[in-house]
């Protein structure tokens, strides 16, 4: 029965048990942080994350379902492919008006069509 009367401060197993408890708390905190991450691959949510918005090194991360795509800015403003679709005007009251451009008739250059009307 001398074993039961032994002082707990001298027993090295007690400190090892305390370390296991500390590691279990750390692991639980990490799992909770992983589950709350918006880019979690285990959820089906659609998420868009913008990093460094408005700066030359801006990144956009888009997650649709389980697919994650990363887009990186090249530093050029307004670059890309496309056609001009119209003009937007800001009014005095703060509202915007969009005016689509007319489609030119066949055989008539765009500049001459405006003169004929």
From TrEMBL:
Superkingdom field: Bacteria
Transmembrane parts of this sequence: 12-34
Keyword annotations of the record: Membrane, Transmembrane, Transmembrane helix
Protein name: DUF2149 domain-containing protein
Protein species of origin: Thalassomonas actiniarum
Classification of source organism: Bacteria, Pseudomonadati, Pseudomonadota, Gammaproteobacteria, Alteromonadales
């Amino acid at each position: 029965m001398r074993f039961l009367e032994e002082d707990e401060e001298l027993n090295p197993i007690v400190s090892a048990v305390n370390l296991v408890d500390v590691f279990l708390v750390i692991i639980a905190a990490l799992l909770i942080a992983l589950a709350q991450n918006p880019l979690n691959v285990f959820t089906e949510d659609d998420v868009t994350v913008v990093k460094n918005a408005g700066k030359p090194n801006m990144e956009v991360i888009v997650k649709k379902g389980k697919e994650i795509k990363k887009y990186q800015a090249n530093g050029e403003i307004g670059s890309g492919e496309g056609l001009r679709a119209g003009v937007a005007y800001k009014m005095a009251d703060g509202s915007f008006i969009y005016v689509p451009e007319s489609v030119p008739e066949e055989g008539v250059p765009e500049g001459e069509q405006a003169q004929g009307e």
